[in-house]
């Protein structure tokens, strides 16, 4: 059996936070943000809208586009660093219930911005081992809930949203995910973390900051490691699979910063048409960014059955991952 990406969906909350809005909140400018990141605006969830609400809406679209019955979904994986609840229950189990899926296997994974690629690799393993047939993977984030809107180094970057994909078993090798790389290096943990609130934080400091889960980032150091790691990773996965970069129809990188995407795209000699960019309108939505970007090219008609995608992500952990994925569409064989 091969694991095929059959459908995609996404949800974006309606409220928009522009660079001009941020100019009033912190000491920054639209010009600085756009020049350094490529971001113009990001979407922010309503105060009573949760990560599972957004994940559920993206999942409903992906399920409807797949043509599958709900009862055919036998595993749900949600990649998130902004779950509905800190420890439990998992966001995946809440999404399952909101979707009306009973007794399905459901769990979250934590790999920050690489979460969707990690989830894809887990789905692939479950399907290829014969344990599951139709896996719903979701990347959903309410990053606004863990963003410190007094910290100009991070609050300009992040947005909310969700993306979902159905990965199904196929006996057609040409439909199957070709390869996935995933990696991590915890020695860089302090570059990007939520230092408070977990078992590693000081419990005698019960002030607001200690109780919060705000993200802290050493942006410039993270930037350099990101460019180096991502470039090496995509070059390696293409080489191992004997694929020239010209065979890639859509390069779908994690949407963190236009300058990182450009550096990696240039290293692969990709042209502008191959590179998928959504960072300008969504900002960095961590685990949701890759499926949201795939959904964008699907809805605009750019993504066609058989198109080869190269996914590439990097995030807190540090974690990274890349994947070579044909878009199978509904042509899967179950
Ligand atoms: N507005 C204006 N000035 C700012 C802002 C801002 N919002 N933020 C920082 N500055 C200032 C700094 O204080 C600094 O000033 P100084 O020179 O007087 O000291 C100057 O701008 C340059 O700061 P740098 O941090 O060096 O700026 P850089 O060009 O690196 O851009 C950024 C910062 C956008 C954060 C970039 O480093 C970045 O994108 N890093 C990678 C982020 C990433 O990929 N993270 C991983 C994924 S996220 C996840 O996993 C959840």
Give an overview of the whole structure.
Helix content is 33%, strand content 23%. The mean pLDDT is 94. The protein has one domain (1-334): Peroxisomal Thiolase, Chain A, domain 1 (3-Layer(aba) Sandwich), CATH 3.40.47.10. The chain is built from eleven helices and 13 strands. With 334 residues, the protein is α/β, with parallel strands linked by helices. Bound molecules: acetyl coenzyme *A (ACO).
General shape: globular
User: Would you give the CATH topology?
Assistant: Peroxisomal Thiolase, Chain A, domain 1
The CATH architecture can be named as 3-Layer(aba) Sandwich
CATH class: Alpha Beta
| Helical content band | 25-40%
Under CATH, the homologous superfamily reads Thiolase/Chalcone synthase
Radius of gyration: 19 Å
By helix and strand content, what is the structural category? alpha/beta
Number of strands: 13
List low-pLDDT spans: none
Mean pLDDT: 94
Termini Cα gap? 9 Å
Give the biggest sheet.
5 strands, mixed
- Widest sheet, order of strands: 1-7-6-4-5
């Amino acid at each position: 059996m091969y694991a095929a990406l059959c459908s995609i969906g996404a949800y974006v909350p309606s409220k928009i936070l522009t660079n001009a809005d941020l100019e009033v909140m912190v000491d920054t400018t639209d010009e600085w943000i756009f020049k350094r990141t490529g971001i113009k605006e990001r979407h922010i969830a309503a105060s009573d809208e949760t990560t599972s609400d957004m994940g559920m809406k993206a999942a409903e679209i992906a399920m409807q586009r797949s043509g599958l019955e709900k009862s055919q979904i036998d595993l749900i994986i949600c990649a998130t660093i902004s779950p509905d609840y800190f420890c439990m229950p998992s966001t995946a189990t809440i999404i399952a219930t909101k979707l009306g899926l009973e007794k399905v296997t459901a769990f979250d994974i934590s790999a920050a911005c690489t979460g969707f690629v990690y989830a894809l690799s887990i789905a692939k393993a479950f399907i290829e081992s014969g344990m599951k047939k139709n896996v719903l993977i979701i990347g959903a984030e309410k990053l606004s809930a863990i963003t410190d809107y007094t910290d100009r180094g991070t609050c300009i970057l992040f947005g909310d949203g969700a993306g979902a994909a159905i990965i199904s078993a196929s006996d057609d090798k040409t439909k199957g995910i070709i390869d996935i790389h995933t990696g991590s290096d915890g020695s860089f943990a302090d570059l990007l973390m939520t230092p408070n609130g977990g078992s590693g934080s000081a419990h005698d400091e019960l002030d607001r900051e200690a109780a919060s889960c705000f993200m802290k980032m050493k942006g410039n150091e993270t930037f350099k490691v990101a460019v180096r790691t991502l470039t090496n990773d995509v070059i390696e996965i293409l080489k191992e699979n004997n694929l020239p970069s010209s065979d890639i129809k859509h390069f779908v990188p994690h949407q963190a910063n236009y300058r990182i995407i450009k550096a990696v795209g240039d290293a692969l000699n990709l042209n502008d048409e191959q590179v998928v960019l959504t960072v300008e309108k969504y900002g960095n939505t961590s685990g949701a960014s890759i499926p949201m970007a795939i959904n964008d090219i699907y809805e605009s008609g750019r993504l066609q059955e058989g198109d080869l995608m190269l996914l590439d992500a990097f995030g807190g952990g540090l974690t990274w991952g890349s994947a070579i994925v044909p878009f199978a569409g509904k042509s899967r064989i179950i």
